[in-house]
Design a protein that fits this description.
Layout (H helix, E strand, L loop, with lengths): L3 E5 L1 H5 L9 H10 L5 E6 H24 L14 H30 L3 H12 L1 E3 L3 H13 L10 H12 L5 E4 L16 H11 L3 E4 L2 H13 L20 H6 L15 H8 L1 H11 L4 H11 L8 H13 L1 H4 L5 H13 L5 H10 L13
Parallel strand pairs: 1-2, 1-4, 2-3, 4-5
Helix pairs in contact: 2-5, 3-4, 6-7, 12-13, 14-17
Length: 375
């Protein structure tokens, strides 16, 4: 399996000091997977600096929110006659004491940088590939910000600086980005990269961008990919016996019998179309049984020639493969894969409703209310 190149935005790391959906166990799992043959985490100095600058503010915000959470101790009059009422009031008082103790303990460890989050983030950083400050890269990032080019927000250069560092340092191929605030993602579909960044990466690095909002989402797909790696070939297999070629005289004497044309009456019009276009079936089978990213991309390219001839049953078969085959699902947001399957969904919207819903989730097409990046 090729090495996976990963970048984690500072906002994701800071969430380990707040109310993150990611767990500390997932951060520990990530640290274990960073190796010379597994995941390569690219770590610009800018990320290290941003984490150091914002760590305490994030901790304080989490503490303040935790303290302000309401613990209702008032009991309605009609419930006060029950024995459980006094137990409930006592439990609330105990919870308040425990909360106060938790805050105090966390403040002590936070001051000494001995929180569990601190240790795990250090472990991740120790295994990462680090890039020092670079004035030339910073100058390029400054120009990028002044032009208003993504990623990043107005008046902030951090994301542009990180992006320019990645463009310089990461080798050609795919890049996986975990970012919480959506600076690297499409506004229309947050599971896909920003179209401008995707185009730039493809042009300069000949690869695809993959976007995730949480470490756990990345790890889930990475583990799916590991599960799809075929076993090493068995070198102890018996050699295949090859029959010796007949003498030249016999070769000349051997004449193949004339081919017998089998008359077959197609059962319906769809079968007739299938008979005159066997290459379509071969391309579909290639995608359905894909066991690698390269095969998936090649099959998508071949199927582009037949897209207008795909029937509803063909579309259902291919979309089912996108849902079930991890080799397709893993790269569902790659531009060619995404464009092909989204076209299938729009052109064959009458496919099985349950399958349609499954595909909507795979390709991130489920609309979200309000700002898609409000957390």
């Amino acid at each position: 399996m090729p090495r996976i190149h990963l970048f984690i935005d500072t906002n994701v790391l800071l969430n380990f000091y707040h109310f993150a959906d990611d767990s500390l166990e997932q951060l520990e799992q990530l640290a274990d997977m960073i190796s010379e043959t597994g995941i390569c985490l690219h770590l610009p100095q800018q990320v290290i600096n941003e984490l150091a600058r914002n760590r305490e503010a994030k901790l304080k915000a989490a503490n303040d929110q935790f303290i302000k959470e309401s613990l209702p101790s008032a009991v309605p009059r009609h419930m006060q006659q029950y024995a459980q009422c006094s137990e409930y009031v006592a439990a609330i008082e105990q919870a308040k004491k425990l909360r106060s103790q938790l805050v105090s303990l966390a403040l002590a460890d936070a001051s000494n940088e001995t929180l569990a989050s601190d240790g795990l983030i250090r472990a991740v950083f120790d295994r990462a590939t680090k890039y020092p400050e670079d004035e030339n890269v910073f100058s390029t990032a400054l120009q990028r910000m002044q032009k208003g080019n993504p990623p990043g927000k107005n008046g902030s250069i951090g994301d542009q600086y990180n992006w320019e560092t990645l463009l310089k340092e990461v080798p050609e191929g795919d890049l996986h980005i975990v970012s919480k605030d959506g600076d690297y993602a499409s506004l229309l579909n947050k599971s896909r990269p920003h179209p401008s960044l995707e185009s730039e990466w493809g042009h300069k690095k000949a690869g695809h961008l993959h976007i995730y909002s949480e470490v756990r989402t990345f790890l889930k797909k990475y583990n799916e990919m590991l599960a799809q790696v075929p076993p090493a070939p068995n070198v102890l297999q018996q050699p295949i016996e090859v029959a010796a070629a007949p003498p030249a005289a016999q070769q000349q004497a051997q004449v193949e019998p004339p081919a017998v044309e089998v008359q077959h009456q197609p059962l319906n019009q769809e079968e007739a179309v299938e008979e005159v276009d066997p290459e379509k079936e071969e391309a579909m089978q290639m995608l359905v049984e894909s066991e690698s990213f390269a095969t998936t991309h090649a099959a998508i390219s071949r199927l582009g020639y037949f897209r207008m001839n795909l029937r509803r049953s063909d579309a259902e078969r291919l979309i089912r493969a996108a849902v079930d085959n991890a080799q397709i699902r893993w790269i569902a947001t790659d531009s060619d894969v995404y464009a092909f399957f989204v076209s299938l969904l729009t052109e064959h919207s009458d496919i099985d409703a349950d399958l349609f819903e499954e595909a909507v989730d795979v390709f991130g097409l489920r609309p979200e209310p309000g700002d898609p990046f409000d957390d």
